[in-house]
Amino acid sequence: MALMKSTHHAIQKEKWQAMIQERTESGLSIKTWCVNNQVSEASYYYWLKTIREDSLVQAGTLAVTRCTEFAELTTKPIETKKRSQGVCAIVHFKGFELEIQNGADPITLETTIQLLKQSC
Fold this sequence. Notes:
By secondary structure, the chain is mainly alpha-helical. The chain has four helices and two strands. The chain has helices at 2-26, 30-36, 41-59, 106-118; strands at residues 87-93, 96-101. Strands 1-2 form a two-stranded antiparallel sheet. The N and C termini lie far apart (86 Å). 1% of the residues are buried.
């Protein structure tokens, strides 16, 4: 029984590969082509997905498991050097420290300086 199912799938797959190629070469939209050829869009998209998945499995780039799993991802904090080579100035003001990097945006820097002046 499984062999018969597998053979039927292979025959259908070949048929749909030809139909999908025909649609692609026609230049028509999927919707228009399906209407003209009396094919349901759902079937077209089902076989398009099936053929793509089979191709990826054969190429070894996709493992189809038919199940969804979630995995927790954790990140490690990135350690940065406080006074790296890219620092051009450090401003100490009312207990705060402002580190200005080389290449800082001039407009942002000007705005920051104006805000510091206003709070004096």
